[in-house]
Amino acid sequence: MNYENLYETLQPQHKSLKESLASLQKLSKTITKETDGGDIKNLIKDLDSMAETAAVLSSALESMRAAVSGFDTKTYFESGDFARQMLDACQEKGVDVRGSAPVFEMFPYRVKLDMENQDVYVDRKKVQCMRPQSLVDTIRSGQEKLNRVSFNPAVFASELADAYDTAVLKMKRQPTADIYLSSLYKFLAPMSRFRKDYDQQSFAFDLARLYISRIDVTKSGRRFQFGPSRESNKSIRILDENGQQHFLSTICFYKQEE
User: Fold this and answer.
1) Over the stretch 91-123, which tens digit does the pLDDT of each residue have?
2) What pLDDT, in 10s, does the model give residues 53-96?
3) Could you identify which of 31, 86, 181, 195 might form a hypothetical disulfide with 189, taking C-beta atoms 3.0 to 4.6 angstroms apart as the criterion?
4) Hey, is 215 helix, strand or coil?
5) Which DSSP string corresponds to 30-54?
6) Do 140 and 97 form a contact (C-beta atoms < 8 A)?
7) 111: which strand partners?
């Protein structure tokens, strides 16, 4: 199965639908004018035209309904056709993707396919989309939007250092201890309403831009370095400027000895 085939089938009916609606709107204005002016002869003629147009509209609607009803969304998902076509669209549109059904990573987004209910989730948010190409376009647009946001790596490094210091105190750790980045996120965005504006995907994207910047020292002169972890669920996947993936788990800040 392929949604693009259904899409092509719907296009003629959709065009007829739009044209009929435009014609009905135009006729409605004319009929109002004729009714107000008492133009019975033209009113009868235009009412007949409106009835004919309404019939065309009804036919287009029924054709679209029949085509859509005949599209088996359950089979489309469970057969893997949706996932395969989504991956093809990613390749065609240059969107990096990792993973396998039902969970895919399209940095910094996480896409999950609910096969049972034929639903798509992007970062836990349900997206009503049965067209793989449209889903990938949405992901790519989101990535482009994130890339357009101004970013100062030095400022972000300092903000990360402040969160690190708070975490060290709250968690009663040593001043140069390795702290999980996932833990620091909670200190950067301590309240749920803050996390709504700055989610974990945005955090991962900022980490990637900091990593790409190659700076390793804050404005105050403290150095920092990222570290790995044996616990893969604690790792944050990022992409560098060449599209290569890296997994960052921890970070530590320290003062360089003279």
Assistant:
1) 999 999 988 999 999 999 989 999 999 999 998
2) 999 999 999 999 999 999 999 999 999 999 999 999 999 999 99
3) 195
4) coil
5) HHHHHHHHT-HHHHHHHHHHHHHHH
6) no
7) 104, 122
Which two structure tokens, joined as six digits, stand for 41?
A: 């002869």
Query: Terminus-to-terminus CA distance in the chain, angstroms?
Result: 66
* φ, ψ (nearest 5 deg) of residue 62: -65, -40
Please provide the DSSP assignment of 59-90 as one string. Answer: HHHHHHHHHHHTS-HHHHHHTSHHHHHHHHHH
Taking the mean position of all CA atoms in its chain, how far away is CA 103?
Answer: 14
Q: What is the pLDDT of residues 189-222, one digit of tens each?
A: 888 887 888 888 889 999 999 999 999 999 999 9
C-beta neighbour count of 13 within 10 angstroms: 18
3 state SS for 116-179: CCCEEEECCEEECCCCHHHHHHHHHHHHHHHHHCCCCHHHHHHHHHHHHHHHHHHHCCCCCCCE
In Å, how far are 73, 102, 128, 242 from 119, measured between CA atoms? Answer: 10, 11, 7, 32
pTM of the model: 0.77
Q: Find where tokens 């969304």 sit.
A: 73
Contacts of 225 (CB under 8 A, 6+ apart): 216, 251, 252
In angstroms, the Cα distances linking 210 to 152, 176, 184, 203, 228 are 8, 20, 15, 10, 16
User: Which residues lie below 8 Å from residue 96, measured CB to CB, with a gap of 6+?
Assistant: 90, 106, 107, 239, 243, 245
